[in-house]
Amino acid sequence: MAELYVGLVHYPIYNKRMDVIASAVTNFDIHDIARTCRTYDVKQYYLIHPKEAQKQMIKKILHYWQEGYGKVYNPDRADALERVHWLEDIEAAAKDIESRTGQRPYIVTTDARIYPNTVSYSFMRKQLQEGEKPILLLFGTGFGIEAEVMKSFDYILEPVYGSCDYNHLCVRSAVAIILDRLAGEAWFEKQ
Amino acid sequence: MAELYVGLVHYPIYNKRMDVIASAVTNFDIHDIARTCRTYDVKQYYLIHPKEAQKQMIKKILHYWQEGYGKVYNPDRADALERVHWLEDIEAAAKDIESRTGQRPYIVTTDARIYPNTVSYSFMRKQLQEGEKPILLLFGTGFGIEAEVMKSFDYILEPVYGSCDYNHLCVRSAVAIILDRLAGEAWFEKQ
Predict the structure, then answer these.
(1) Which residues in chain A are contacts of B72 at CB distance < 8 A?
(2) What is the pTM of this model?
């Protein structure tokens, strides 16, 4: 079983007008995704942001749950938040995983478009179950991760389809669905 | 294919001390769950709350997206919010579905405990694909739906397991995972 890591990318991100920006951190992204990650035994959940002011805010929130009163008030929540860390860019996340595991991770993300290295959920689930190299699964905020950076990734997961052509899931729901497909119990093998 | 409906229940709900309460409506529950429901072609998403003040707040938010400037500002979001409605109790939701389809729905929910009528995700997915009776899938807020009311439901879905024993998903992530298991594309049949 390979180790799974998640990163939420706030730069370089497209906005509505396709300008490259750094997006703002959202408190619900921290909590909801931390709880989902903990449920699927994700080893670390990285909040990736290059800006000092956002780093300070993230660290303040995390401190409350990792060291402050949050730990006493809601230990289950603190348990999830313990695995959340700020890092300045995607490369720092890859390096952190390398220092923990001795191996550089596969870098994987999702996109609405199809690329030469687009793979299915079954492929990546098998990679996770049978592989040895850790996997860093990245999610973009805003309108997605900048195209040049996307090109450097090892695999792109197919877009998530529901049961119609509407595809505007929030990132929090997308993380939940994708982690369940990759690392959830095999409910589909059960009658 | 049976029609699928979702209800988010705010009463009767347990709080942390197991008192029965009416929980407060959360804006993220409205938006995130509406977008997930729209992705999985859920016909209506009911916000179930008995209190007048909460009803007024829900109606104000929905009006902005269904009739107000939200419709122009973000049509995709408005598309999802169009299917959201306030109702005062679970019975009103069942009656609304009956008036739309001519059939009383199966009422289904999830719980961490196992009941005589607990069923698997595969069973309910098949019911949805091959059945004719509509399905009303209820999610509790707070610490879950009151026990006596739970007894009146037709089916209880198994708890969601990730890949460890931590199970404190937020309701928004639980809805996303469960709708993908019941109504998502059959990604697990694909290599």
Answers:
(1) none
(2) 0.97
In tens, the pLDDT along A35-80 reads: 999 999 999 999 999 999 999 999 999 999 999 999 999 999 999 9
Please, what is the angle between helix B171-183 and helix B27-39, to 10°?
10
Is any Cβ of chain B less than 8 angstroms from the Cβ of A32? yes
- Scanning B161-190 for CB atoms below 8 A from A yields 161-164, 166-170, 172-177, 179-181, 183-185, 187-188, 190
What are the CA-CA distances from residue A71 to residues A26, A64, A67, B38, B166 (Å)?
21, 8, 7, 36, 16
* The one-letter amino acid at B179: L
Q: Which two tokens stand for residue B153?
A: 């439901």
Q: Give yes or no for B100 touching A (CB within 8 A).
A: no
- Judging by DSSP bridges, how do beta strands B45-48 and A155-157 pair with one another? unpaired
- ipTM computed for the complex: 0.97
DSSP string, A149-176: HHTT-SEEEPPP--SSS-----HHHHHH
Interchain proximity A162–B79, CB inside 8 Å: no
Choose among B134, B31, B48: nearest CA to B82. B31
